Amino acid sequence: MRPAPPPAASGRASQVLRRLLRPLVGREPSFYRAVIACFLIASTLWMLRSLSNSYTASLNYPVRWRYNAQRYHPARLLPPSVAVEVRGNGWRLLSRAVGLHREPAEVRLRLPGTPPLRSPLRPPLRRALGTVRLVRLPADSATYYLVPGSDSLASRNLD
Q1: Nearest 5°: phi and psi at 101?
Q2: Which domain of life is it from (predicted)?
Q3: Does the structure show a pLDDT above 70 at 134?
C-alpha cells in the first residue's frame, strides 16, 4: 500500500500565507516600524472601545467578618474572600479584577439561634462593589452561623 498523499489544504494554506506576506518582504526598516505602530494604535483603540462596554465577570471579593469573638465563634472557618458574579463597565470590572478600589465588604454575622432571613453577604457586598452590580452569590452564602463559646476555630486549628 502506498501512503496517502498530504492533504491539499495545507499546501493551499502555505500559498495563501506566502501571498499575504509577499508585500511585506524586502522593505526598509522604517516601513516595518510604521506597520508595527499602526497595529499598536489599532489594538489600543480596539481595547479602549471594548472596555467601555458592559460585561459579566466572576471575582473573588475580600470579606471582613464582624462578630463578637469573645462570646461566639463561627461553626466553620470563614473564608477571607467569596466568589461573586458581577456585571458592570469594562473599566470598573478591570479595576476590581486587578485589585484597585477593592475595599473589603464588612459582613456582620447574626447571633446564634437567629437564622438569617436572607444572605448576610448581599447588602455589604453591594455597598463595597459600588457601581458594579452584584449578579450572583455563592450557593452556601446563608450558612455562616455563630455558636456560643469563646474559643475560636483558628486557635483550635493551631493546637
Answers
A1: 55, 45
A2: Bacteria
A3: yes
